[in-house]
Amino acid sequence: MSTDLSQTNDVSLRSLRAALFDSAAGQLLLAFASLIVLVAGFGIASPNFLQTDNLIGILQATAVNGVLAVASTYVIITGGIDLSVGTLMTFCAVIAGVFLTYWGYPIGVGVAAALICGALCGATSGFLIAKMEVPPFIATLGMMMLLKGLSLVISGTKPIYFNDTPDFPVIAQDSLIGYLVPSLPIPNAVLILFVVAVAASVVLRSTVLGRYIFALGSNEEAVRLSGVDTDFWKIVIYAVSGAICGIAGLLIASRLNSAQPALGQGYELDAIAAVVIGGTSLSGGRGTVLGTIIGSFIISVLTNGLRILSVAQEWQTVVTGVIIILAVYADIMRRRKT
Amino acid sequence: MSTDLSQTNDVSLRSLRAALFDSAAGQLLLAFASLIVLVAGFGIASPNFLQTDNLIGILQATAVNGVLAVASTYVIITGGIDLSVGTLMTFCAVIAGVFLTYWGYPIGVGVAAALICGALCGATSGFLIAKMEVPPFIATLGMMMLLKGLSLVISGTKPIYFNDTPDFPVIAQDSLIGYLVPSLPIPNAVLILFVVAVAASVVLRSTVLGRYIFALGSNEEAVRLSGVDTDFWKIVIYAVSGAICGIAGLLIASRLNSAQPALGQGYELDAIAAVVIGGTSLSGGRGTVLGTIIGSFIISVLTNGLRILSVAQEWQTVVTGVIIILAVYADIMRRRKT
Amino acid sequence: MTALIEVRNLDKSFPGVKALRSASFTLEAGEVHALMGENGAGKSTLMKMLAGIYSWDSGEVLVDGAPVTIAGPKAAQALGIGIIHQELNLMNHLTAAQNIFIGREPRRRFGFLDEGKLNFDAAALFRRMNVTIDPKTLVGDLTVAKQQIVEIAKALSFHSRVLIMDEPTAALNTAEIDDLFVIIRDLKAHGVGIVYISHKMDELKRIADRVTVMRDGETIATLPAQSTPVETIISLMVGRELAHAEPPKVPEIQGDEALRVVGLSRGRALRDISFSVRRGEILGFAGLMGAGRTEVARAVFGADPIDTGEIWVRGAKLKIHSPADAVRAGIAYLSEDRKRFGLVTAMDVEANISLASVMRHRRAWGFLDFPSLKALAARYVKSLTIKTPSTAQVAKLLSGGNQQKLVIAKWLARDSDILFFDEPTRGIDVGAKAEIYKLLQSLADQGRAIIMISSELPEILRMSHRILVMCEGRISGELTAAEATQETIMKLATRTHVATGTARGGAHGDEHGPVANE
Amino acid sequence: ADTYIPLISKGFQHQFWQAVKSGAEQAAKDLNVKVTFEGPETEAMVDKQIDMLAAALAKNPAAIGFAALDSQAAIPLLKKAQAAKIPVIAFDSGVDSDIPLATAATNNALAAGLAADKMASLIGGEGDVALVVHDQTSRTGIDRRDGFVNQIKAKYPKIKIVSIQYGAGDQLKSTEITKSILQANPNLKGIFGANEGSAIGVLNGAKELKRKIVVIGYDSGKQQKAAIRSGEMAGAITQNPVGIGYKTVEAAVKAIKGEKFDKVIDTGFYWFDKSNIDDPKIAALLYD
Ligand SMILES: Nc1ncnc2c1ncn2[C@@H]1O[C@H](COP(=O)(O)OP(=O)(O)OP(=O)(O)O)[C@@H](O)[C@H]1O
Ligand SMILES: Nc1ncnc2c1ncn2[C@@H]1O[C@H](COP(=O)(O)OP(=O)(O)OP(=O)(O)O)[C@@H](O)[C@H]1O
Ligand SMILES: [Mg+2]
Ligand SMILES: [Mg+2]
């Protein structure tokens, strides 16, 4: 009996310590601390930075990249990489445009079409990677180009406007929160980001899918030899990630009131940067959605802050590059210490 | 004595078999065959394609990407990745411009400055990766942004022209071969590409550096446990790769008679695609320079051919994406068979 | 005479684990010093500190009587300390010769390599070890056993004064072990001090001069190897007397047929393999390394494709295309290489134990049933006495033997009733070995069919109701428990299909011509 | 200089935008206000530009200059500016909305039409021509392409446009594109390069293949000016980028002070070639 008791004590103590210093939790704390430091620093440097309007602007600017980064998180934890998230987002936006504006379907159908299309494209990448064994970098590089081209082809290289469906822009631009708390007109895009993040986080931590995401990233062959249909699950993971890109596509289309077919390339790097700054390992097996969200915010706070300070644009690029390296370095240092 | 003889026989037989069926050699054959098929296909589709002028044009169009791809090959065989090759190329071009045009140094000094600068930047990436343990993707992503910004800062966001050093454009544009064989006015840029490729290939196969490149990509921990200073060698490898990017910078500056500070981003994906199409594995440990060169040519032949056929640009992107996936898939199929 | 190496009161902690507590021992020149202890006792950790891989928290190490610090592998080499690691550390894309001389390549001018000399030196080394490996083969193409031999060759090539061997024979067959011992005696005669770690008790008597026993990070005692009874050493290791009764052989098994394999073939690796196993039976698979036993298991399990052959499970013919099919049919495969094929090392004990059965512990919408998963893990940690601070410990941080137990737990949790155990006790200490034997026995008693692949003949003889012997991809014979002895098995194991001499010298050998005497 | 006027442009790396910026900075000095100038990296990045506009609004500016990549996408923010009583001045190709109080812009379509007329007369009213354009989806790219193409179609039935390709304004890419066009069309008579980078690419391509064709460019820059002087380039359309920048800031200051100003500030476009390149009126519009 006494053994059991001491063990229990031991465990609870350990879990407390773990919460504070463990790899995952510690990383989050560190990332969060960097975010706070950035916000505080910019707040001191410019009186305009901490104004409600600007903070809401930052939230809104994070929405699209945040959702894309969440999509990338899943793939990166499996040890893969997805270069197509940006152009897939655009492709889904174009598809929504085709359904709503060209074909005049109701909004629900357009939204569903975009999500399904995202899932299908994701599943295609997953199929290439799982069944045809094309390395993720190449499969998604190919998809990136393919989708970029297809977006232009389908849209006729012109933006598709949502003028006939005035409710569509409302999705991202209106503010549910603003109705309830008029002083906080946070646009729905931000709300959607948080819903996506919470859902993605729960799925990652508490479902079979999440378990397999981590396991595949840790040792895929061992998972296969445990009787798990790894090909199937990989395709599912990429499909889910693709559907999340579809959400990003709806957000950006709704925000811009148009599907801009040439947009999207380059967004994958921002998304990956956010994921990695948030402490997810590119070699797979380790990561959190919360970290990714913090990483996204670090990037947008940085971008916004430098703009607010009117730093010359070329220097903004320099500073962002340095900060990305430093953020990841700090994480590594912290982990090396323990 | 008899031992030696039998061994020699054995070796020659084995090397013949190897040349035909070995993974590396087979991959080269396959890549080369794809290239031939592409060239033949375009030749049949358009009478303009196989003209000397156009073929020389393809060679010339490959020079810059080819050199960048060679630089990437080293890094990728170690299991790393370099996203900064494109902007590093530009940065080196700008440095050459600063030395030659702003400061009026002789051409030799400008060339040396570009190469040294490339090596230093590469070494910095290497340092971040080896000593600070920042993952290559992030370290070079940061470098990419940093160098992009610095190029703009240093040049004052203006192109730097080499009008005061009329010999500089000659480096890439003149044709040594054309002097000797007037019917073959192949520009020096192509010659330089081949010299770089041959040198890089020899270094990779027959020197200590090459040995460590493969060894690091195969099992870095094992190399370290064998008492090799892996950090040092990684820095050297990234430095050499950076110096090669410096050569690319000189080529592009010489060809455009100017250092264009805003250029370069996006070139890294073409370079990586060429490397992978050429059969080098992104997971490290396996690859050849010759394959990379063939991969570069596949990309430029494709691009040129589609343009010659006046395929709409959006479709060009689609086709290129599909071909990249197919090329890599074919390689994987072939390897799976053996 | 000052000792070659003297270790005084070394302490070492890892997060959550105190791996060494005031460990001490001395190594004299010209002795073979065995280090014994249960899994996780701290043997590898102690040796890794001497090899410059970890640094110690406190205590001191003296080499030739002078205190030293060992900053890294290079520093260890400079002190004359060489090590064969427990885990293979090879570069699969490089050749055997390139692996052996990595970091010390013969060079010409300007950093160019002298590949001729490299290969020549490696060939000489292999000749001295009496093995036939082509120095130019890619290490990735070698079997685990040959890879182990390459590791040993590499350690020998340093001409160290101190050679640490951390379970060098775990993957070797009897003949290779004999060759290795010849080399060890030769080194000993030249004054090299050797630290020898193994879980095989018989080796202790054959090769060691002194033995130091470790338990829970402490060095319990140092004893003369020859005069100390094995029982004493074992009881020191486990800290108690071990019940050491041979389990009685079970007579003929009468259960229903669980698995029948007919005419299984793939290329040259597997040729016309047919066998069957009944419920409640332990079928032993014996053979030399590379005989194809692993390949049989992997083929039946769907891990590798097959050319022809039928698989019948419980009387029904099944098509097994993937491990998922096999697992669904109740077949389990416990791989010989746990790190690569058994574990998700970055995940915790619970995730590893439930890896194959997580689908049974879910609620609606795919949500995980955490209490049930935790209970599952706790149950197996307890029943297999897996040494871990908690079920949330990352598998990577467990010792080799405890990792092996995790893999076993994974399949027990899945409740499979046809189990392939491929070298189930590789790298496992005596105490744990006995537990695993008991476990196999009780699984069989529960009516499961067990196929046990093992290179340790005593183990095969002790456990199996029936023994199949393989040679060069064929089943070369079948023995009942009564017929089987070490001699009968070895005879079958070397009976190649076309009689071309022994497996080692003939079919696999590369012709190097006559070997010049040095 | 407490009056702060941010200018959100379509880009910042191209020389054209640098010239607009210098005009704006000149006006800032003359009128004693503070300006900043920024724009996204490519003209595809509509959302990045919106974020920039949002950040600019957060700085409580006295007025804003805005060159919309997509007018519609910016409307919510422009409305916000209107509500906050921040005057908005549109520049470059204008904003499709009645919120901007004034527009300082070039009519790109008309300007490209002029280029088409010049091309027609230089090649004798018949034959094959091609276009190398910087962007397939951006407003300037579309306007210049369509302006040129429509003018040819409307007025010169004997001229055939055989190829339109896009090189992202990247000189190297545009060079390779030009070479493929020339290769595929041995009888090609002329190419219109629709911005500075494209025009230089066309020049390089023709030079490398040693083909004599009529090259018409757009905007200026050191290389284009030199090529026009040497006759390699027949001529080019110049806008008045410095003027655009200057007039934008000037109008903004007037709006802040409540002074009157024109709603449409046509900064104009001009054809220049060897004959008038040193004409002081033209020379003032050209940048290096
Ligand atoms: N890097 C590490 N981090 C944390 N714990 C470790 C690490 N390496 C070893 N340990 C722990 O230290 C203890 C000693 O392990 P060690 O590998 O030395 O055991 P061993 O005696 O070699 O066992 P085996 O016979 O199974 O190889 C074990 O409890 C192990 O889990
Ligand atoms: N990765 C590989 N590449 C090439 N040949 C291999 C590979 N793995 C095994 N083989 C070959 O397949 C045959 C069967 O090997 P297998 O591993 O099944 O033998 P085994 O009887 O299980 O012996 P072990 O005791 O080593 O496990 C051998 O001839 C071996 O050389
Ligand atoms: Mg050990
Ligand atoms: Mg085996």
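Strands of chain A lie at 160-161, 258-259.
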